[in-house]
């Protein structure tokens, strides 16, 4: 047990305050820069006293980058990824823990190894699949000779093609599988007493009813923690949405910030870029604030 003393409390709060200043310092500088005009924001050094053009800059950033529809696209994208990861991870972990079949342990480790393969590593084959979801099946038909046989017999060329570029489904589907979520759920399910499973079986509950009525309610804090992490992760994605969405109507808010990047040859409009950055930061910040209690409980709670 750590003894509570005034001196120890003082240094503890001092360390927390220093950490708060370090974390909030960049955000404060962004907010101050967003309140200046173009002349003041380009001064070296920039004044740390807030200016009077904050709302003007926010309005300019909103209209220049057309952030209204882009924020909606980001909410659909991040929300879809978060919900998909929570559902897929829960089902996968349920299968690994409560069903007995050959190769179950090997399958878990194969899933776990995918942690070493982030999206940036597999982005080329993932893009190829999204460009034509049916391409693996087309390749299988070509290798087995079925497509050649069908063409010889009927004269019809088999060409399977289903592209998901510039669509919310194409953005979300490749990102819904996660080894992190599967591991989190698996470790939690392993702590469920066997007596609870036996009681549910004696009451006539099948696998699906046990999963929905018992496991999922017990996993609410885990779902909140995982959903929050994955929402923030998906919201901050830049490379994947930039690659998949080429039409402005389907772009996300993060990728659309490039419209506010200062152009070459002119005076950089950093105040507009900083105002747009603040707008894009608000939704994930609101999610963290609203889900903070559930998020912390899902990560550190030990009672089941």
From TrEMBL:
Keywords: Cell inner membrane, Cell membrane, Membrane, Transmembrane, Transmembrane helix, Transport. Residues 71-291 form the ABC transmembrane type-1 domain. GO terms for biological process: transmembrane transport. The chain crosses the membrane at residues 7-34, 75-99, 106-130, 169-189, 270-291. Its main location: membrane. This is sn-glycerol-3-phosphate transport system permease protein UgpE. It is a multi-pass membrane protein. Belongs to the binding-protein-dependent transport system permease family. One of its GO terms (cellular component) is plasma membrane. The complex is composed of two ATP-binding proteins (UgpC), two transmembrane proteins (UgpA and UgpE) and a solute-binding protein (UgpB).
